[in-house]
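pinned: reference chain
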Amino acid sequence: MSMKIQPLSDHVLIEPLKQEEKTKSGILLPETAEKEKPEQGKIIAVGPGKKTEDGKIIPMEVKVGDVVLFTKYGPNEVKIEVDGQEKEYLIAREEDILAILE
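pinned: its structure tokens
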């Protein structure tokens, strides 16, 4: 069974993108080389936005399909079955997103 997930409030579902880092001289750096470096991912689903105390919803600045830069330790990992295979995704608050990459 394939699961559909809809983030609540100001949460987003992110598919992490693997990054291979190369130096200018062509040396490939392992993932452990720079632990504090922000991560990249693609937005798969977004919540409706954060609700204020008076009930108004602040719309999200990101949308499905955006490629974003986010903090490494902010998101929570989740595993979701997609087409019979388990895939790893991240659920983050919009405030954990640092930038939209264009």
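why pinned: The radius of gyration is 16 Å. The domain at 11-17+29-101 is CATH 2.30.33.40 (10 Kd Chaperonin, Protein Cpn10; Chain O).
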